[in-house]
Known about the structure:
The protein is α+β, with helices and mostly antiparallel strands. The protein has two helices and seven strands; from the N terminus they run βαββββββα. A hairpin with an 8-residue loop joins β3 (46-51) and β4. The protein is globular, with a radius of gyration of 16 Å.
Amino acid sequence: MTLAPLNDVLLALTTMETGPDNPLTALPPAHYVLCELGEHDTRTEHAALLCPGGTPHRPALWLLWTGTDTDRTHRITTIPWCPTVLRILDTDSALPCSLLNHHTGDHSWNVTDPLSDLLAGPVTINNTHTRGDTPDTPTDHPR
């Protein structure tokens, strides 16, 4: 978890080609973001989605950071979505990975993050996809 650099985030949201109509509403809650990659080594950048692209195939805006406390550095950039898709044969549906392209570690459907789970509370997933009922974007499904 890290405190989002609000001035940089707001500037990136405002100048994003397919960004939100009101960038203020897209700021992270409580101005903190969690790494979406789950557990990983300290050399790997942390990554948090700030804003999806305007359409499912447009790059999303990501906050990437390394280090802790005074050694923390960050960058904000648009990165395409991971192209990997989980095919669910018994329901004839597909679940796109909701992480950035070239991410390290597991795809979103296999990510485990104890801090994120603790903050989110108990989770119930309604796994009743019907044939052809697939998420339109990587952000339309649970991580």
